[in-house]
Design goal:
Blueprint lengths: L5 E6 L3 H14 L6 E6 L2 H10 L4 E5 L8 H11 L4 E5 L4 H9 L4 E4 L5 H33 L4 E5 L5 E4 L1 H7 L13 H4 L5 H13 L3 E9 L2 E12 L7 E8 L1 H38 L6 H32 L6 E5 H18 L3 E6 L5 E5 H17 L5 E9 L2 E8 L6 H4 L23 H10 L4 E7 L3 E9 L18
Parallel strand pairs: 1-2, 1-3, 3-4, 4-5, 12-14
Antiparallel strand pairs: 6-7, 6-10, 8-9, 9-10, 11-13, 14-15, 15-17, 16-17
Helix pairs in contact: 1-5, 2-3, 9-10, 10-14, 11-12, 12-14
The structure holds adenosine-5'-triphosphate and magnesium ion.
């Protein structure tokens, strides 16, 4: 036997037929291939040989003295590992051979029709096909172990929201209730019974609109009340959404820590507000009424204290505002207002400061009224934060404030020629307490809450906020508000606010 020979184990109890097969395979050798045949006339002998040697292919008659039919095939499969099996069958056993094909046999040949050519071709193709299947299986197993290793739950659903595929984290969440059977083929709401109806609606929405949707969902997950960060990703072969991938991350702990921080900030700011107001008022009175009795040095010290107390007041107001927005207790009173008029008022308030710093304030409003339903205090706050940021981070140049009606929206922007924000810092820019670059004047250092508050106010108006910035060149914040059409429903309160 040569090392390159194709090693074939042949199960055949008729000695003369076994010899014929050997002869046919010898005859078919050539063209760079040759066969080395080992014969076995019982299943027991074949299993023994398979345990001790490795073969490239198995050629088997399923009817042997010690086993018959599919039992022979099942026993062979159990020992053959990845070795392909080709069956030899009589005319009356074709149905059996087809069943064996369904269970993993590579091919079958009718005994009467066997020739050297078709036998060798069947064996060679079986080995090739089998090789491809084995490497495909290995690659699939590789991907599977990769997605199984993730803590995020991943599930693929069909258009009826039935589970097509899922990873281990999803199955674990589904089986948190032990009475729940396997997930595959089941409807999503049966696989995870604690799932809120909102999740199913979002799946359908992502499928019908063919776009990615992200959400935070409070739900019963792994037997405990949790908050999930979910991504709904429609899969669109030929542009038609056919399936959807849902990726869910348990962010309960992160939310709880955030809530603790918010509660702490709220408590501290409430407690500090009253004493600080009286301190500021007291110092203010001394500076105004008693200035005549004060030494120059005392006056200077008191002025510094007064400024610091005012700064603390501003920080506390921001913290309180954030707490109210978080808790959903800030009441928005929406009336029909002209956005450009609100922007004008805010610009006028900043005019003095901008002039002192040599920065031009430009206004670009499209003609006509830009009216919509809004909370005037809220949108004033939005312009105030954005213009104050622009001033804080612009040393020279100009700040442009614009508003225009586009389609169903009113689009506003605040553009500056300041320091800009790096790409890295832009991610997470709208989160609480995020501060990056140094303000032009050190005393203008803020709390890092402004943009979070702006984003929250706009969210509650059904609007959006985005940023475009280039370090060294400047920044443009753009926000939208829905145009006046009908009563705009206020966006719901954050659903994860009452976790603790
Ligand atoms: N126009 C801008 N140019 C450059 N950087 C900016 C601009 N606007 C915001 N930033 C960056 O984003 C950070 C967050 O802004 P945000 O308004 O949330 O907080 P803040 O201005 O620092 O404090 P606060 O508004 O609470 O007083 C800023 O500290 C700054 O680093
Ligand atoms: Mg700010």
């Amino acid at each position: 036997m040569n090392a390159d020979d194709i090693k074939v184990l042949v199960l055949e109890d008729e000695r003369s037929y076994l010899r014929l097969l050997e002869a046919l395979l010898t005859e078919a050798s050539g063209r760079g291939r040759s066969f080395a045949v080992t014969g076995a006339d019982t299943l027991a002998l074949a299993l023994g040989l398979l345990g001790a040697n490795s073969y490239d292919a198995i050629l088997a008659d399923l009817f042997l003295p010690d086993s018959a039919g599919l039992d022979t095939f099942t026993a062979l499969c159990g020992r053959a590992g990845n070795t392909p099996i080709v069956l030899l069958t009589g005319l009356d056993n074709e149905a059996l051979a087809e069943e064996a094909l369904r269970r993993g046999a590579q091919d079958y040949l009718l005994k009467k029709m066997v020739t050297g050519e078709n036998l060798s071709r069947a064996l060679v193709y079986a080995i090739e096909r089998n090789g491809i299947e084995v490497s495909l299986r290995a690659s699939e197993e590789g991907y599977r172990s990769l997605i199984d290793a993730l803590d995020d739950a991943i599930v693929v659903l069909d258009a009826e929201l039935r589970v097509v595929m899922s990873n281990r984290a999803f199955k674990k969440a589904s089986q948190a209730d032990p009475s729940n059977p396997a997930v595959s083929g089941r409807k999503l709401q049966e696989a995870i019974p604690g799932l809120p109806a909102k999740c199913l609606e979002t799946c359908r929405q992502a499928l019908s609109e063919g776009r990615l949707i992200t959400a935070e969902e409070p739900c019963l997950w792994n037997n405990r009340q949790s908050v999930l960060e979910t991504r709904y990703i429609p899969i669109m072969p030929d542009g038609v959404a056919g399936r959807i991938v849902v990726v869910a991350r348990d962010i309960t702990e992160r939310k709880q820590v955030e809530q603790l921080k918010d509660d702490f900030a709220s408590l501290v700011s409430h407690e500090l507000r009253a004493p600080l107001t009286s301190i500021t008022a007291g110092i203010g009175m001394i500076l105004e009424d008693g200035a005549g009795h004060l030494q120059e040095e005392e006056k200077q010290l008191l002025s510094i204290s007064y400024k610091d107390a005012q700064r603390l007041n501003r920080i506390i107001s921001k913290l309180l505002e954030m707490s109210r927005l978080n808790a959903g207790t800030s009441r928005f009173k929406k009336t029909v207002e002209d956005v450009a008029a609100i922007a004008d008022e805010v610009v006028a308030r900043f005019a003095g400061r901008a002039k002192c710093r040599g920065i031009e304030l430009l206004k670009r409003y499209s003609p006509g009224k830009l009216e919509t339903l809004l909370d005037a205090d809220g949108i004033t706050e939005v312009f105030t934060n954005l213009i104050s940021n622009a001033l804080k981070f612009t040393e020279k140049g100009y700040i442009e404030i614009g508003a225009a009606g586009t389609g169903d929206l009113i689009e506003c922007y605040v553009k500056d020629t300041g320091t800009g924000i790096s790409r890295e810092d832009q991610t997470g820019l709208f989160m609480k307490f995020k501060r990056f670059g140094k303000p032009v004047a050190e005393e203008e250092k803020g709390t890092g809450l402004g943009l979070f508050i702006v984003k929250e106010i706009l969210r509650r108006h059904g609007g959006t906020l985005s940023v475009a910035s280039e370090p060294g060149k400047g920044t443009t914040f753009t926000f939208t508000l829905p145009k006046l059409a009908e009563e705009i429903p206020e966006a719901p309160e954050k659903r994860s606010g009452n976790l603790l």
